[in-house]
Design a protein that fits this description.
tRNA N6-adenosine threonylcarbamoyltransferase, about 45% helix, binds 5'-O-[(R)-(carboxyoxy)(hydroxy)phosphoryl]adenosine, about 325 residues, binds zinc ion, Nucleotidyltransferase, domain 5, iron, acyltransferase, 11 helices, tRNA processing, five-stranded mixed sheet, EC 2.3.1.234
Length: about 325
C-alpha cells in the first residue's frame, strides 16, 4: 500500500496529510483568521492565504509523519467543489509536486471525502451506511454503498446547515463563524422561542426561510423590548440550535425509515455541534441505530479525509493526468 500526500484547499483551510497503508500519519491544517473581520470567507483573501500557507503546511505534514518528499508514492488533492481560486492553489501544488517527482495524481471529490473521513480511524462503519453531511457549504443525506459508490438521496435547496448557524449568528452580532458561538451560548439557554421549520418535501432541506423567521421574530420582540436580544441571547441561541437540529434529525429519521439502514454517520463541520451530537445519540439509543461521529479534527475540512479517499482510489486504480483542472461545482 502506498504513502500518499494529500492536499485540501477548497475553502478557507489549507491542509496537508500523509497517509500510509490507509492510516493517517499526520494531518496539518492552517486556518485563516483574515476572514473574521469580514464576517465571512472572502474568496480573494482565501486564495492568497492558501498561496502563503501551502508550502509550509506540506513541510510540517511531512516532518510530523517522519517522512520526506522522496517517500511519497502518490498525490491526492481536492478537485472540488469549492472556491475556484482556493482550489486552484491546492490543485496547482499537487500537479507541480507530482510532475517534479513523476508521481501518480488522484483527484478527490470534497463531499465524498467528508463521508470517508469515517475511515481515518476506528470505529469505522460497515458498508452500506447512511451519512448526514452538514457543513458551511453543504447539507446532504448520502447512502454509502461502498467507498466510491455514494448516492445523494437528500440535499438542501438553498442554504447549508452551517450557513444557517453562521447567518443567524451574524444577525445576533456574533463573530464569524457563528456556529461554535451559538453552540456555546445555547448550553446556558432554553429553546423557548418557536421559529419556522421550512420543509421542501421528500428528504430535502431548506434553511433560508429559517433566517427570515428569526429576523421577523426578533424584530417584533425588539419593538416592545429594545434589549430583547441582549437579555435573551442564550435562549435565542438555544432556540436556533434546537430548530436546526430538529430539522436535521427529522429528515435523518425519514431516511433511515426509507433505506432501512441503521448505521448512521455524521460528517462535516456542523457535526461538532453538541446539540446535534447529543440529539443523535439519544435518538439512536431510542431507535437502536449505531452512530458514527468522527473526531472534530476529521469533521471540519482536513486533508486526512482527502488522503483516505485517495487510498481507496489508489486501490481502485483511479488516477488522473496533468490536464486535470479544479471544478467549483460538480
Ligand atoms: O466542514 P467545515 O469546516 O467547512 C465547510 O466545508 O463548510 O464546516 C464549517 C461550518 C461553519 O458553518 C461553522 O459555523 C460550522 O461548520 N460549525 C458549527 C460548529 N462548529 C463548526 N456549527 C454549529 N455548532 C458547532 N459547534
Ligand atoms: Zn467541507
Amino acid at each position: 500500500m502506498p504513502i500518499i500526500l494529500a492536499i485540501e484547499s477548497s475553502c478557507d483551510d489549507t491542509s496537508a496529510a500523509i497517509i500510509a497503508d490507509g492510516e493517517v500519519l499526520s494531518n496539518v491544517t492552517a486556518g485563516q483568521a483574515v476572514h473574521e473581520e469580514f464576517g465571512g470567507v472572502v474568496p480573494e483573501h482565501a486564495s492568497r492565504a492558501h498561496q502563503r500557507n501551502i508550502v509550509p503546511t506540506v513541510a510540517v505534514a511531512l516532518s510530523r509523519a517522519g517522512k520526506t518528499a522522496d517517500d511519497i508514492d502518490a498525490v491526492a488533492f481536492t478537485r472540488g467543489p469549492g472556491l475556484i481560486g482556493s482550489l486552484m492553489v491546492g490543485v496547482s501544488f499537487a500537479k507541480a509536486f507530482a510532475l517534479a517527482r513523476n508521481l501518480p495524481l488522484i483527484e478527490v471529490d470534497h463531499m465524498q471525502a467528508h463521508v470517508l473521513a469515517h475511515f481515518a480511524e476506528a470505529p469505522k462503519p460497515d458498508f452500506p451506511f447512511l451519512c448526514l453531511t452538514v457543513s458551511g457549504g453543504h447539507t446532504q443525506l448520502v447512502v454509502v454503498k461502498s467507498a466510491l459508490d455514494q448516492q445523494v438521496i437528500g440535499r438542501t435547496i438553498d442554504d447549508a446547515a452551517g450557513e444557517a448557524f453562521d447567518k443567524s449568528g451574524k444577525m445576533l452580532g456574533l463573530p464569524y463563524p457563528a456556529g461554535p458561538e451559538i453552540d456555546k451560548l445555547a448550553r446556558a439557554g432554553k429553546p423557548v422561542i418557536a421559529f419556522a421549520k421550512p420543509d421542501p418535501g421528500a428528504l430535502d432541506f431548506s434553511f433560508s426561510g429559517l433566517k427570515t423567521s428569526i429576523l421577523y421574530t426578533l424584530q417584533k420582540k425588539i419593538k416592545t423590548e429594545p434589549d430583547f436580544v441582549k437579555e435573551n441571547l442564550e435562549d435565542i441561541c438555544a432556540s436556533i440550535q434546537d430548530t436546526i437540529v430538529s430539522i436535521l434529525l427529522r429528515k435523518l429519521t425519514m431516511a433511515v425509515e426509507e433505506t432501512g439502514l441503521t448505521q448512521v454517520a455524521l460528517a462535516g463541520g456542523v457535526s461538532a455541534n453538541s446539540g446535534l451530537r447529543d440529539g443523535l445519540r439519544a435518538l439512536a439509543e431510542e431507535k437502536g441505530w449505531s452512530v458514527f461521529i468522527p473526531r472534530i479534527e476529521y469533521c471540519t475540512d482536513n486533508a486526512a479525509m482527502i488522503g483516505v479517499t485517495g487510498a481507496f482510489k489508489f486501490a481502485a486504480g483511479e488516477f488522473v493526468g496533468q490536464e486535470v483542472a479544479p471544478a467549483a461545482r460538480f
